[in-house]
Amino acid sequence: MKENKKEQRELVLPGSKPEVRKVDGEPTKIIGYAVRWDQLSHPIFGMFQEKFKRGAFSKCLADNPDVYAAWQHDSREVLGRTPGTLLLTEDDIGLRYDITPPSWAEKHIETIERGDVRGSSFIFRATVEEWDETNSDMPIRTITEAELFEVSPVTTPAYPQSTVGIRSAEEVFQNRNHSDESLLGYTDEEIDMIMLELDLRMKKLNL
């Protein structure tokens, strides 16, 4: 199996938007959730839905990864970085981030406080995943282990609409049966029908 590529996902759900926490005598914090466990995503380009199992980032976090937080995914505006100014923790809800932003980020903090910035985005690489295709119309991808590279407060979360973003999702979808033994037991004719169905789905999406 070839190495999976980095993927970008966004989260905008009730109770998930970033918040600013100010306590006298302590640095200002930007707090949010990059991932909420077992919460099914919206359909990703009509191909599949996705969710993260609790503890999906445990192994990654134990290895003290180099992860940074950027404003709107802009690497020129880094808000924090592990292990000093970005704290990443897994709790009962999901993967939480605590950012201690620099002083120049006050303008961004104001937009979060006003509610103008309502979502979180993250970049990851899935290392262990499972596929449930019992619903032929919309397979579900469950990520049980992943690496994390970046978290970002974002204004309008949405799956990347660029060609690169679509192709990335298509590659994940097409490679799903090569990462496990899910095609074992099928005849050659049945496999041909599965691939034909996939080709038709891709054509409907104009991919």
Description:
By secondary structure, this protein is α+β, with helices and mostly antiparallel strands. Helices cover 20% and strands 35% of the residues. It is built from four helices and ten strands, in the order ββββαββββαββαα. The chain has helices at 58-62, 106-113, 163-174, 188-204; strands at residues 7-11, 19-21, 29-36, 49-52, 68-71, 74-81, 86-90, 94-99, 119-132, 140-154. The strands form two sheets. Strands 1, 4, 5, 6, 9 and 10 form a six-stranded mixed sheet that branches. Strands 2-3-8-7 form a four-stranded antiparallel sheet. The longest helix has 17 residues, at 188-204. It is elongated, with a radius of gyration of 19 Å. It starts with 6 loop residues before the first strand and ends with a helix. Mean pLDDT is 81; it is low at 158-164 and 179-184.
Strand composition percent: 25-35%
Report helical residue fraction. Answer: 10-25%
Terminal CA distance reads 23 Å
User: What kind of sheet is the major sheet?
Assistant: 6 strands, mixed
Series of secondary-structure elements, N-terminal to C-terminal: EEEEHEEEEHEEHH
Rg, alpha carbons:
19 Å
State the helix count: 4
Q: What is the approximate shape? A: elongated
Number of strand segments: 10
| Structure classification | alpha+beta
What are the low-pLDDT stretches, counting only 5+ consecutive residues below 50?
158-164, 179-184
Mean pLDDT: 81
